[in-house]
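REQUEST ID: PR-0412
SUBMITTED BY: lab tech R.K.
PRIORITY: routine
TASK: structure prediction, single protein chain
INPUT:
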Amino acid sequence: MQPARQSKLLGLEILRFISAIAVLFWHYQHFAFVADKPVDFVTEAQPLYRLFLVFYRYGFYGVQVFWCISGFIFFWKYRTAIADGAIGAGRFFVLRFSRLYPLHFATMLLVGLLQLVYFAQRGYYFVYQHNDFKHLVLNLFLASHWGWQDGYSFNAPIWSISVEVLVYLLFFVVLRLLGRSVWVSAAVLLACTLAKWHWGSQVFPAVDAVAYFFAGGMAAVAYGRWASSRALNYALLGAALAAPVGLWLANRPHDQVAPMFLLAYLPALLFLLARDLRVPPHWQQLIEAAGNMTYSSYLIHFPIQLALALVCNARGVAIPYHSVGFFALFMSASLLAAYFLYRWFELPAQARLRRQLL
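STATUS: complete
OUTPUT:
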C-alpha cells in the first residue's frame, strides 16, 4: 500500500482539529478546581453549554480519536517503508523525537515555573499536584504515564503522548520483525480489544492506545485496498450515520458501551474521511494550518489556564469561568498561541533537529 502523493488527508486534519477543540472544552472545568478537585462545579452551568454539550460532556474522547488518527497516518506513511527497511530505527526515532520533544520540554518547564508561583500564592498547585523531582524525571524522558507515576504531573496532557511513544515502539518492532502482513496487525488489534473488553476502564492505558492506533492502521490498510468500492463506502456511510443513534438508544452503562463503540466506529469514520477533498487552495491551507496546530493547542492550553488563574489570584478575584467573555478569552488565547507556537517554535525546532541529527 503506497499513499497517493497528492493526498493531503484533509478530512482527517479536520477531525483532528475538532478533537483538539473537544479536549479544550473538557478541560475548561479546571477553572473550578481547588487543588486537584472541582468545587461547586456544575457541568451544565459552563458557558454556552447547550450549544457545545457534546464537547463539554464527551471531550475526553478526543484522546482516543488522536490515537486512532495517528494509527491511520503512521500506517499510511510508514508501514511499507519500515517493513522493507527503507526507514531504520534511528531515522524513525529522530522523526518522532523532533516532532514531539521540543514543545513538550518547553511547556513542561513553563508549567513548572508557573506552578511554583501558584504554590507560593495558594499553598497548593493548580489541578495537578505531583510536581516533584521524581515526576520531573519521568516527564523529561516522556515517561510520565508508563506506570511509575503517582498521578498526573506538570503539563499533564502530555500523558497521552507519553503512552503513544510506547505504541510507536511496538509499531516499529512489529513491522520490522513480523512484517507488514495485515494478519499480524489484526492479531495485535484483536489482543488489545479482548483486553479492553475483559478489563474495561481498568486496562493499562498503553493497551488502550495500541487498540485505537492499530484500529486506525487497519482503516488505512482497508482504504488503500478498497477506497474505490462504492458498496463499501455506502455501507460505512450508513453505519456512520446510524451508529450514534443506536448508541443513544442502547440501554447500557456509558463506560461499557462508549469505548467499544468508538473502537469500531472511528476506523469506519476515518475510512470515509480519508478521501481527497476538492477545496479551493485557500481552504486547503486553512485546514492544513488547523491540523498542524493541534499538538501545540494540546500542550499550551493548560499553561494558559494556569496563567489566567495566576492573574486572578494576583488581583484577588475568583476565576469568572461562568462568563462567556472569559470562555472566549481562554479559547482564543489557546488557539492563537497554538498557531504562533507551531510557526515560530515547533516547526523551526523540528527542522533544526532534523538537520542536525539526520
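NOTES: Confidence is low (pLDDT under 50) at residues 1-6, 249-254.
REVIEWED BY: pending
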